[in-house]
């Protein structure tokens, strides 16, 4: 049995290390951290708007007016509706920083590339009319959870292209004495032209299809099926089984499994909060934003049970330190 455990540890440890140190997964994780504080604050206002207390709306309206909910919904709408913009900039910045190139330029290029593949129009129908108009606008639909998948792809691809072009020397060299900010701007000129041209052509090709843009194509054929698959009870049971399996061999299962599943919970949480603010209309099964670091309720309770057993049965002084839960965790 011990040989089998040693063999599993030998096989799993390198795999877990590779996944945990993957630059692209780290970039996605760190990129979302940029928007996390805003999403939390927006969620707090969302809770206050839908507080589960009888006569809550009447109570708030008596002090703040009948339109108080519109005011409180503003922070939630503003934070969730632009989460893709924040994520794109954060992912580009984090990935470029890992490759040791100009992170700020990479973030800006990623953001502009995302806007290139995003339609700047909205279909609009006036009340009492059946005629559909197309008006120039920046649809908030694609700035929120619906555009998140394409945003991640664009940020990773644009930044990786930027890194490759910089390393190949596709830059404009400036003479000595030029301010560093000017040097960095001109160094990014040729890579920016190549990257933006690439996404312009991609957007043009998507415009030739019946869907009209890349956002619609990826949302219908990739993001929706993937989120439907990952946002199920069966998928999460499998995820937590693997999480505990890795922890059994001393590998941080939350980091390994969470790297893949955490990103599935963010669009679900955003969709639930924005599209279905009322609790009774909740439709997403697993709107997690972060997988618990202790492996969920089961593992957390196992710690507590072990502490109780040690306190009740252990007599050796060398086991005293195990009576503290933090010693078991770390």
From TrEMBL:
It comes from the Bacteria. The keyword Cell membrane applies. Pfam families: PTS_EIIC. GO terms for biological process: carbohydrate derivative transport; phosphoenolpyruvate-dependent sugar phosphotransferase system. Residues 8-330 form the PTS EIIC type-3 domain. It is found in: Cell membrane. This is PTS transporter subunit EIIC. The lineage of its organism: Bacteria, Bacillati, Bacillota, Bacilli, Lactobacillales. It is a multi-pass membrane protein. One of its GO terms (cellular component) is plasma membrane. Keywords: Cell membrane, Membrane, Sugar transport, Transmembrane, Transmembrane helix, Transport. It comes from Enterococcus lacertideformus. GO terms for molecular function: oxidoreductase activity, acting on X-H and Y-H to form an X-Y bond, with a disulfide as acceptor; protein-N(PI)-phosphohistidine-sugar phosphotransferase activity. InterPro entries: PTS_EIIC, PTS_EIIC_3, PTS_Sugar-EIIC/EIIB. The chain crosses the membrane at residues 32-53, 76-96, 103-124, 144-166, 186-206, 226-249. NCBIfam families: lacE (TIGR00410).
